[in-house]
Fold this sequence. Notes:
Layout: E1 8-14, H1 18-29, E2 37-43, H2 50-55, E3 63-67, H3 73-84, E4 89-93, E5 97-99, H4 103-114, E6 120-122, E7 125-128, E8 132-135, E9 139-140, E10 146-147, E11 161-164, E12 171-175, H5 176-181, H6 194-204, E13 208-212, E14 216-219, H7 228-245, E15 246-247, H8 249-269, H9 273-285, H10 287-300, E16 304-305, H11 324-338
Parallel strand pairs: 1-2, 1-4, 2-3, 6-13, 7-14, 15-16
Antiparallel strand pairs: 4-12, 5-14, 7-8, 9-10, 11-13
Helix pairs in contact: 6-7, 7-9, 7-10
Amino acid sequence: MKEKNSRISIIFPSYNGERFLRRNLDSILQLPYKENIELIIIDNNSMDNSIKVIESYSKDLQISLYKQATNLGFAKACNFGVQKATGEFIFITNQDVIFTPNFFEKLMDIYVNNKKDEEIVISPALIFEENGIHYYGAKIHFLGFSYTKNLKQKLPNDSQLKETKRFSGGSLFMRKSLFLELGGFFTPFFMYYEDTDLSLRMLRKGFKIYTTNDPYLIHQKHEWNFSDFQYYLLERNRFLVFFRNIDGFKKVIPYFIIIELMLIFQSFIIKKFRFRMRMYYELLINRKHIKMMRINSKKKSKLLSYDRLSRELDSVLIGDNKLAKIFSKFLKFINYTFKLI
Length: 341
């Protein structure tokens, strides 16, 4: 089929990624049929030598480097990159991944063999070099949480392809035209949960999302601590994901309250209470805008019923803290009550 020879645009933002970029670009150099691959990098005003590293590969790779005067964030930078892409297909990823051999040949075979009448989206697994799975499919909870359940486990030895609720923003393969048709990433997120939001919009329109362990990507970065700003974005964006995509708010209000009380307590322990209160305050003062955002989203396509999403919260939500055992017991009780909805 003609798709096998289609041009592919690899797109990722770069931000102070000097320590990751060489291994990333070296792995792209090793890919066959590089004449069908273009690389679009949006530098979000890096302060290190990222740009010099990227430019040093310009003779060997088809690189379009767009230097920004400010940090656009992940969502806006990727949308910009897709607009500039000349490939029929796009692959959105991160600056800190390593491509495995024959990555796109395997990926295109999966696409050709599984696409029927409707377009499909494929999100290959991401693994840490020494610590197992980072992403291999993900669940979306009806309260907006989204995460990989089998975190840090080993990938299966045999090749597998499975349907999933969410792709990873670090591993997204699809037609450029479909990304643009869906409106791309929601830029107010800046970063975090833009993949959950777009995944839910795909599900609302009936598109299928797949993940596979063959091929897969290697993720160089392995850090679990979040800055105060990152914590704020993660928590705020989860609420925005719910209001933009998930139906049944009145019915799940009691469960929102229970979980938020637990997370407020957790924020004390991890010293993020002030940023949690800031998040609640900003959601409150922007409630009219959020309501309108929900109304406009409904006009585009029917919201996804909460009962089509997961009712179980995993211990990965808790993080690693001194009271993890207590929180785990509380989650078991909460999960039991969720089943009664």
